[in-house]
Every structure is written in structure tokens, then in C-alpha cells.
Write a structure and sequence with these properties.
By secondary structure, the protein is of the alpha/beta class. The chain has a single domain, classed as Thiamin diphosphate (ThDP)-binding fold, Pyr/PP domains (Rossmann fold, 3-Layer(aba) Sandwich). Helix content is about 45%, strand content about 10%. It is built from 10 helices and 5 strands; from the N terminus they run ααβαααβαβαβαβαα. A 5-stranded parallel beta sheet has the order 1-2-3-5-4, with helices on both faces. α8 links the parallel β4 and β5. α1 crosses α2. The longest helix is centred in the N-terminal third of the chain and has 26 residues. The protein is globular, with a radius of gyration of 19 Å. The chain starts with a helix and ends in an 18-residue tail after the last helix. About 45% of the residues are buried.
Length: about 300
């Protein structure tokens, strides 16, 4: 597939946007402004490659590393930063924090601190879409650890049985992957080499790709999403990724990999690259200023937005 110059630049911009945002959050942690946050650095290509193929109305369910997914789906940086800094201007009024950000206006319907928690939830979205015949699909992101969770396996089976419009995305950064990349591990987590092999047990397509290659991710996601949207049911895609630090000069960094490709193709110049980074840095700074400068929730806000079901 030969994407247009502008499409490739948009993919690159989005990955830079995610990396810049997460680096901004890292700085806030270093300054003691906020506490722990789990980052998706190294997985930018998966978030962008998948979400770039989705419509705004399509839904995604995320993990405890949700920032990349949320940004790639179009979430507002200021509202995200305000939520991370626990301010009332955040997406969830400062009550959810980084692990439970919801951005319903762009179809980001759940970051999740529970291992595999978003998978059955996304199947619920898919069922609703199927019953409403609205042409929308859902995408569930989860990790290799979640792939061993019972609820995930049950959801794969049910989605296959009901031919649900859902795509399952496994981001595999397991110790086995790190061993492949030259790291040592003490114990295995998986009895198989690829999580995608489990798809055959449920009679659905499954495939594994390098998650540090944005073009491979984009093309694989496009095929699976189109197939699902056309009514052919679920697909399980697995992307091997390498969790890295922002300073890592590694062949497994999706941002640097694509940057080199775009330079080679003449699509990206040093001047344009600097402009892209400067623009994202400016927007992230504005988001930080907004988040840090926003008011904290009032004590009585703890009793708001609570829903009780009477029996």
C-alpha cells in the first residue's frame, strides 16, 4: 500500500504528539506535581496505526497504559492533562485519574486498571452496534498478560459465536519479546510463541506483526477493521512492541524508525521535523498549564455523579 505524503506525515505527527505528551507527564512526575502514571512509550505505532483507521463514532477500550490510545482517538490534551493532575476541568472531573479516563465524544469509552477489563466491555459496545445496525465497530486493546485472563478468552469465543463487529488488539511486550530483543527473563508467561495463534481455536482470523513498524500496523489494522465493518466478524491482531524510555536510540522505537523512512523518502525535512516537534511541544505546554492551573474538585464533589439503582 502506498499512502499519500500527507497521510504519512499525519501518522508521524500523531506519534510525535503521543511521545511529547507522555514526556510532559514525566516532567510533572519528576517535579512532584503528580504521582505514578503508566506510559505507552514504544507502542505509539500501534495506537496511531489502529485508530487512524477508525471513524470518530467507533469505540475503543484501553488498558492501564491508555494515553497513546486516547490521543490517537482524538481526545483533548487539556482535558486529559487536567484529569491526570486531578482537576475538576478534567474529562472525569479529576475523579478518574490517568487509569480511568473516558472521552465519550471521540469514542474513547474506557481506560481500565483491571487486566483485560476493557475486553468484555468492548464486546458490549459491539453487540449494541450490531443490534442498532449503525455500521460502527469497537476495538479492544489489551496486553499479553490479559490474553491469559479467563474473561478475555470467553469474550473471544462469544464474539466469534455472535459474529460481533469488534477487533481485538493485543500489544505484546512480554518477557518473551524482551528476550527476542536481547533481554533475559526468569519465567515464561505464554505457552505459545504468538498470542494470535489462539484465534484459530475460535474460528476467527489472527495474525502477528512488528508493532514498531507503523506501516505494518496501519495496513494490518485497515484490513481487519474493513473486514469487521463489512460484517465478517472479529479479528485478533497481535503487535510485538518494545517498552522503551524516551531517550532510547533503538531499532524498536516506532517514532525514530518512521522518521528515518520519511527522511529517506524526501517527505520529511529537518526544518519540517523541527516545526512538527515545536508545534506538539507548544500544545503540550498549553495542556500542562491548563491542567496545573485548573481548580481542584470541592469536597462535596465526591458525592456528585453517583448513581444508585433501587431494587
Amino acid at each position: 500500500m502506498d499512502l499519500s505524503r500527507e497521510k504519512k506525515l499525519n501518522l508521524y505527527r500523531e506519534m510525535v504528539r503521543i511521545r511529547t505528551f507522555e514526556n510532559g507527564v514525566r516532567q510533572l512526575i519528576k517535579e512532584g506535581v503528580i504521582g505514578h502514571v503508566s506510559f505507552s512509550t514504544g507502542g505509539e505505532a500501534v495506537a496511531v496505526g489502529v485508530c487512524s483507521n477508525l471513524m470518530k463514532e467507533d469505540q475503543i477500550g484501553s488498558t492501564h497504559r491508555p494515553l497513546g490510545h486516547l490521543i490517537a482517538k482524538g481526545s483533548d490534551l487539556k482535558k486529559m492533562m487536567a484529569e491526570i493532575t486531578a482537576k475538576k476541568t478534567g474529562y472525569n472531573k479529576g475523579k478518574g485519574g490517568p487509569y480511568h479516563i473516558f472521552a465519550p465524544e471521540v469514542g474513547a469509552l474506557g481506560a481500565n486498571g483491571i487486566v483485560g477489563g476493557s475486553v468484555p466491555m468492548c464486546a458490549g459496545y459491539a453487540l449494541a452496534n450490531q443490534l442498532r445496525k449503525n455500521g460502527m465497530i469497537s476495538v479492544s486493546f489489551f496486553g499479553e498478560g490479559a490474553s491469559n485472563q479467563g474473561g478475555v478468552q470467553e469474550t473471544l469465543n462469544l464474539a466469534a459465536c455472535w459474529n460481533l463487529p469488534i477487533v481485538f488488539i493485543c500489544e505484546n511486550s512480554s518477557p518473551e519479546v524482551q528476550t527476542m530483543l536481547g533481554h533475559e527473563i526468569d519465567y515464561p508467561q505464554l505457552s505459545i510463541e504468538n498470542v494470535s495463534e489462539r484465534a484459530s481455536a475460535y474460528g476467527i482470523p489472527g495474525a502477528t506483526y512488528e508493532g514498531w513498524d507503523i506501516m505494518k500496523v496501519y495496513i494490518a489494522a485497515e484490513r481487519a477493521i474493513n473486514r469487521t465493518r463489512e460484517g465478517e466478524g472479529p479479528t485478533l491482531l497481535e503487535f510485538k512492541i518494545h517498552r522503551i524510555s524516551p531517550e532510547d536510540e533503538t531499532n524498536y522505537c516506532p517514532v525514530l524508525n518512521f522518521q528515518k523512512i520519511l527522511f529517506k523518502e524526501g517527505i520529511l525535512t529537518v526544518e519540517l521535523d523541527e516545526k512538527i516537534h515545536e508545534k506538539q511541544a507548544k500544545e503540550v505546554k498549553e495542556a500542562i498549564d491548563f491542567g496545573v492551573g485548573s481548580p481542584e474538585p470541592e469536597l462535596l464533589d465526591a458525592w456528585k455523579d453517583i448513581f444508585v439503582v433501587e431494587r
